Amino acid sequence: MKKTLTVLAVIIVVGLIAVGTWRWVNDEGVIPGQEPGEPGGPAATGPVQPDWCPDVEVIAAPGTWESSPTDDPANPSFNPNSFLLTVTRPLQDRYPADRVKVWTLPYTAQFRNINADHEMTYDESRNEGTSTLENELRITHGDCPLTDFIMTGFSQGAVIVGDVASEIGQGYGAVPAERVRGVALIADGRREPGVGQAAGNPVSGVGAEISLELLNPAVQLVTPGATMRGPRDGGFGVLDDRTFQVCAPNDHICDAPLGVGNAVERAQGLIENNGVHAQYATNPNVFPGSTTTQWLIGWISGLVDRAPAPVQAPESGVVDSVPPVP
Predict the structure, then answer these.
(1) 56-306 to CATH, choices 3.30.565.10, 3.40.50.1820, 1.25.40.10, 3.20.20.70
(2) Is the pTM for the entire model greater than 0.85?
(3) Which residues, including other chains, have CB under 8 Å from residue 259's CB and lie 6 or more apart?
(4) Which of 120, 159, 169, 178 could bond to 239 as cystine, CB 3.0-4.6 Å?
(5) Whole-angstrom distance, CA of residue 156 vs CA of residue 65
(6) Integer Cα distance of 125 and 96 in angstroms
């Protein structure tokens, strides 16, 4: 009888050890002496980043009459004089494609007015550009969850990028805010003093959409289908410290006067390609001793150079976790 009890006790002890070992392996995820990811061991956890994904995607949104929905986002040619080409081309030359993907927003960048009644309205053009940009963000993030984004836009493109950044910063945008390394808005028509970070020489006015918000009926006489929406509700949320506003003094798109004035004359100014608005690539009065082009290239390059490169596991296809954007 004693032998039987002894055998039963040994069986019970061995069984308890086996169960404990099984729970240890499954709870802790590792067996002593075995590294994660080794055959027989658990795989590392976290999102998967295919090896073809770029570390950073730079998105550029051109201004009115600088883009087309059929343009090639990787090699845009619709308007060879597009301001942002002075920025994106040097970036493409500087970085390999697996480090930086440069994508230029293709959209119908038009602005129907009394001089161009055949064109798409500003509202329709802006909505199309916004939808196309958000779709690109969602697709890239879905395929490459560890890729970070840097976004910049000029004029109408700045309004589009600013609107998208506002939604992302408030938590209901196309991608998580932690995946956005920075935003630069050049001549933003919804620029509001104190919202975002001012870069370059200071200006005293506001964006045209804020300046003309209360004058929408008069604006429609000159630019039908161009709704002046005022400031962005909620600003840029958590992206406020990563969003930079650049505006040339006396550029009536981003440095317009407040208060009621000659609404028709001010609305007409929206469709005129004045010298200040057209010279960001060379204007020395925005960044003393430099240009907006040079500032953008330096700013974007700094963000890219500080961006971590997701580490690809050699065989498992699983990446290590990447620190959040600072």
Answers:
(1) 3.40.50.1820
(2) no
(3) none
(4) 169
(5) 9
(6) 32
Which pair of tokens denotes residue 25?
A: 């392996």
Task: Quote the CA–CA distance of 168 and 233 in Å, as a whole number.
Answer: 13
313, exposed or middle or buried, with CB in 10 Å at 0-12, 13-18, 19+? middle
CA pseudo-torsion sign 213, 214, 217, 222? negative
- Report domain extents, the chain: 56-306
93 neighbors 77 (Cβ within 8 angstroms): no
Handedness of CA 162, 165, 169, 174 (dihedral sign): positive
pLDDT tens per residue, range 287-301 = 999 999 999 999 999
> Active-site positions?
155, 251, 277
Nearest to 293 by CA among 186, 149, 157: 186
Judge whether residue 273 has pLDDT over 80: no
Taking only the tens place, the pLDDT of each residue in 158-188 is 999 999 999 999 999 999 999 999 999 999 9
